[in-house]
Give the backbone structure.
Amino acid sequence: MIARSELKKELINAGIRPSVQRLAIYEYVKSHHTHPTADVVYDALRDVLGSLSLTTVYNTLKLFVDAGLVQLLTIDDTFRCFDGDTSSHAHFRCDSCGRIVDLKIKSDFLAMVDGLGGFEIKEAQLYLKGICPICKRKN
Amino acid sequence: MIARSELKKELINAGIRPSVQRLAIYEYVKSHHTHPTADVVYDALRDVLGSLSLTTVYNTLKLFVDAGLVQLLTIDDTFRCFDGDTSSHAHFRCDSCGRIVDLKIKSDFLAMVDGLGGFEIKEAQLYLKGICPICKRKN
DNA sequence: TTTTATATTTGCAATGATTTCAGAAATGAA
DNA sequence: TTCATTTCTGAAATCATTGCAAATATAAAA
């Protein structure tokens, strides 16, 4: 759990004015590692904050993604979800329960890709899909 | 370029009846390595075939994906595109020109991911984004 | 070949996540 | 406080994708 004042500084450093809504949304994605959709964030915060618009959540998350503070995941092709952890890691999506799991990845994994000379890589996403250990045990 | 009769066999082997539309769509995605969207396939084939419905293109591509004959890519979060090459390879999307490029990847690249024991991996997608060599040279 | 059943295609309407937009509210500076 | 700027809001619009029911094509049976 990161302190609110620390999160505030991060927003300011990124050139983003830390409004009440923005700070709440930022705190949510940084403290919940559940890869929430915009809608999930909206449902979780609408009661905490007096009022909140779903549009604000969409706009704010897009702002964070563009600033590099949050990752946008498209591992499930039917919706977008967000990850406050911007460090390099892989994602696994269980076909059975839908859960998205973080997996550690070696820092030099791009060495496995051939012919990258001349390319400028700004972002890398490794998406794995299949059956998670919990669902496998159930069968 | 693969022969039409060969493509026909592949569909039959997958349990898919090779109708005129299906064969045309299958031939398109297997011979064009441009990662087309459903709409692009539709526009390319509507004139060749007498008539064609966009719904048919969506349904057919989904059929191919479910049968494992074609890959679904979600590297661009605003639309889905398709890849007739189902072999293991990475994809790069240029932020500048939007082009999606195939990149070779070492077959054992999953060794770079920690803690995969217990997981059953059915699909892996490595998406890279940034600036391609052609766009870099232009600047 | 004709009939019948089944599979496929079609076009339009519906869906639903996301975005746009214009006005309202909040914020910061003077 | 006043003014200017930024941010938030909610409703309406967008657009890729899907659902559905009718039309067509294909295969099997008679």
User: Anything to note?
Assistant: DSSP finds five helices and five strands in chain B. Helices of chain B lie at 4-13, 20-31, 38-45, 54-66, 133-138.
